[in-house]
Amino acid sequence: MREDRYGSPWLTPREAAVYSRCSEERIRSAIACGEIAAHPRLGTARGMLVSARDLDRLIESEVLRMPVAAVLMQKGA
After folding, report:
1. Quick one: pLDDT at residue 52?
2. How do the residues of the chain divide into helix, strand and coil, expressed in percent and rounded to 5?
3. Which of 17, 33, 38, 46 could form a disulfide with 24 if both were Cys (CB 3.0 to 4.6 A apart)?
4. Following DSSP, what letter does each residue of 44-66 receive, concatenated?
């Protein structure tokens, strides 16, 4: 599991995109579709963090490699 430069297992969407080698837009789509949970950043009015462990599971499931439309079709949306 990857941790950020501060030793935290929590990643911003930008850090998650770099880690998973996909676009930040794809990470945000995964959050919006419920493929990965996002948690509010403490002490800020906006922003979110994702768990590196959850991101690893998502990468292993290969969902990130699929187009968003294909993921939604699999979910029956």
Report:
1. 92
2. 50, 10, 40
3. 17
4. -SS-EEEEHHHHHHHHHTTGGGS
Structural domain including 50 reads 10-75
Could you give the CA distance from residue 29 to residue 55 in angstroms, rounded to a whole number?
13
pLDDT in tens, 14-71: 999 998 888 999 999 999 989 899 999 887 767 899 999 999 888 887 665 666 556 5
CATH number, position 27? 1.10.1660
Secondary element (H or E) of residue 11 = strand 10-11
- pLDDT of the residue at 15: 92
